User: Which sequence fits this backbone?
């Protein structure tokens, strides 16, 4: 334990929505040193990556406008958490000592198993891949056929952004178009896409990707000068590489306070956390509150008090359809969509406000640590789901 009167050294690994907010909230105690480790010198506003690709918006923000006074930013990548030595090893060869770690590495694009997808498809989940995609898009004429694979929010927003620019777009959903939408909401989105020339293949699946075409599961071949892959997310392998137990996707297994089941000095948050082996839906909506709760858990560990269990309600989703239209799908506290939505210009304004609020929460927490409030009352399992636990080792 840290001796009384000395500083508590907290390392936050990952500077996304959850990690950055957590770092700011830790400043509620004045006897902590806070180090934020992130592989990039700028914050990536991931909910705007589709705008970045289409050149209708930016997706990076200077950390100097987001981090509270005294937080040290280390631009590097963590390669291993050495639990025994209580150090974080970095790709540069440096090590950082810690008393507590907040594990906020976020999510990445899933590695597709479809033949040719890794070679010829362009993911969009990270700024580097979005930069490559934007450069490739700039090379194509407006009438070049583009295939977007994945019917979730990212796929829909990307297809809509490109369709509004009069590009020729096919959206291959691989099943139900965005299961987070209600039937009415789904019809609304499908109608907008179709009206703007997007060929929506609801149940279609891509079985192979080539340099200039995609092959569907039914054998049909569709020309595709550019294939954009938005189907699924993965997580970095840092937890497994550190010998910590994870779920099957690689998210760090925690209890309901977000504390690692292997070491109470490690607290996970955001997309890379699997509380009780039953993670929440990956979303920007959940990232901020989970970041706040992770910081609160660390502060409880420092104070030798019992941390509170996570309490967060997800209440729907917002999707932009180009720059002028959007949809705000309403949901119950358990994230189950109700048959009610707000569309049109109002939906677009709500979506834009939501994006601004996500960053605004971080800035407000920097000015006033402990200020974040969030909707509560969402359901959580009564008992851990032990079947989701996978023992991993370095």
Assistant:
């Amino acid at each position: 334990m840290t001796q009384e009167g000395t500083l508590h050294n907290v390392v936050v690994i990952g500077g996304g929505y959850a990690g950055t907010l957590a770092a700011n909230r830790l400043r509620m105690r004045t006897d902590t040193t806070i180090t934020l480790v992130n592989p990039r010198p700028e914050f990536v506003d991931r909910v705007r990556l589709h705008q970045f690709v289409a050149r209708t918006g930016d997706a990076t923000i200077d950390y100097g406008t987001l981090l509270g006074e005294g937080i040290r930013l280390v631009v590097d990548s963590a390669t291993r958490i050495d639990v025994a030595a209580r150090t974080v090893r970095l790709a540069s060869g440096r090590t950082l000592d810690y008393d507590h770690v907040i594990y906020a590495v976020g999510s990445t694009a899933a590695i597709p198993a479809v033949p040719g997808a890794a070679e010829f498809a362009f993911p969009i989940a990270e700024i580097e891949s979005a930069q490559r995609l934007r450069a490739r898009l700039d090379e194509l004429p407006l009438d070049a056929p583009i295939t977007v694979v994945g019917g979730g929010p990212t796929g829909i927003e990307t297809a809509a952004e490109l369709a509004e620019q009069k590009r020729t777009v096919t959206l291959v959903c691989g099943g139900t178009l965005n299961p987070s939408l209600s039937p009415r909401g789904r019809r609304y989105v499908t109608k907008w896409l179709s009206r703007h020339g997007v060929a929506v293949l609801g149940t279609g699946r891509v079985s192979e990707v080539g340099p200039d075409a995609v092959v569907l599961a039914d054998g049909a071949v569709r020309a595709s000068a550019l294939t954009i892959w938005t189907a699924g997310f993965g997580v970095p392998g840092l937890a497994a590489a550190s010998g910590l137990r994870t779920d099957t996707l690689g998210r760090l297994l925690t209890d309901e306070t977000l504390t690692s089941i292997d070491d109470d000095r490690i607290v996970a948050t955001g997309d890379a956390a699997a509380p009780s082996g039953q993670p929440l839906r990956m979303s920007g909506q959940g990232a901020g509150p989970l970041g706040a709760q992770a910081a609160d858990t660390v502060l409880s560990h420092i104070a030798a008090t019992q941390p509170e269990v996570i309490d967060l309600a997800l209440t729907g989703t917002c999707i932009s359809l180009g720059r002028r239209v959007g949809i705000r799908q309403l949901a119950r506290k358990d994230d189950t969509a109700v048959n009610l939505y707000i569309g049109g210009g109002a939906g677009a304004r709500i979506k834009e406000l939501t994006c601004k609020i996500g960053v605004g929460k971080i800035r407000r927490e920097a000015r006033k640590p402990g200020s974040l409030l969030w909707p509560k009352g969402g359901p959580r399992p009564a008992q851990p789901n032990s079947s989701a636990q996978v023992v991993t080792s370095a």
About this structure: The first helix runs from residue 17 to 25.
